[in-house]
Each structure stands twice: as C-alpha cells, then as structure tokens.
C-alpha cells in the first residue's frame, strides 16, 4: 500500500512539473490567450528567414508578431502582416527591416521609428522597407571582388 502511494505522489509531481514547463514554454515563445493589438502591413523584395510567428522588435524589445506572409503574384514581393501592441503608436514615417541576431542567430523584423507626429492606424502600410540580406551572397561578392 505504501509503495502505491509513493508511486502516485511521484507521478503527480512529474505531471505538475510537465505542466509547469508547458506554461513556461508557451509564455516564452509568445503564445498568449490575450488578443489585441493592431495589424500593420509591409512589402519586401526578400523575406528570407521570416515566418508566421517571427518576432517584431523595436530597440531590441518585442513589440509584435508576424501574423501572415504571402507572395504577391503581380509584383513578386513578399507581403507581410504583423500585429503590434496597442499601447505603441508607431509614427507613420517609420521604416521596417528584416534583421538577424548575429551570424548564426535567428531572424526578426525590426521597426525603425520615424519622427512624424502622426501615428499609423489599423491596416497601415510601411513604405520604407528593407528586405533580408543573404550572408552567402555577400561573402561570394567579397571573394569575387578580391580576385579582380
């Protein structure tokens, strides 16, 4: 009888620990039951490394998440939609670029704030965009340039 009670207690501790890890993982990844924020759009020549769920950051702080990414069949550009925090009023002349955390780091979307006194509204679109830069192409250009 004591053996069964011990197994039950250990099993309960394992289940509680697993639930704790799941809650921690979902909060650190950005899953959340709260909704809100407003949607903004941008169009990029290249969106390499970006997927739905990618962080949108400003000054290194997460301020949103990529919610949709699709190819425009007419312009052949990557159209991106992302959700921004409600408490941030992004100036309408702000820019957005795809950045990397380092040589081996992940990719994120960076908002570069402008100086306008007018804020972007729901569904607004960034005009100033800069797509991702391939490090392989840069290295190939550097190697090719040094041989000439």
Automatic annotation (TrEMBL):
Keyword Transferase part of the UniProt annotation: no
Domain named Mce/MlaD: residues: 37-114
Transmembrane segments: 12-31
Keywords: Membrane, Transmembrane, Transmembrane helix
Pfam families given in the database record: MlaD
Keyword Membrane: yes
Record's signal peptide: none
Name listed for the protein in its UniProt record: Outer membrane lipid asymmetry maintenance protein MlaD
């Amino acid at each position: 009888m004591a053996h069964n009670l011990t197994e039950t207690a250990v099993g309960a501790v394992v289940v509680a620990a697993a639930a704790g890890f799941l809650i921690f993982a979902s909060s650190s990844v950005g899953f959340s039951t709260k909704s809100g924020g407003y949607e903004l759009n941008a169009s990029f020549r290249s969106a390499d490394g970006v997927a739905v769920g990618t962080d949108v950051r400003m000054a290194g702080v997460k301020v949103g998440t990529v919610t949709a990414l699709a190819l425009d069949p007419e312009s052949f550009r990557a159209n991106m939609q992302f959700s921004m925090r409600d408490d941030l009023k992004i100036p309408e002349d702000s820019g957005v670029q795809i950045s990397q955390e380092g040589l081996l780091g992940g990719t994120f979307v960076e908002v570069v704030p402008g100086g306008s006194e007018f804020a972007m509204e729901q569904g607004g679109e960034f005009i100033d965009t800069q797509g991702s830069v391939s490090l392989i192409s840069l290295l190939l250009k550097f190697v090719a340039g040094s041989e000439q």
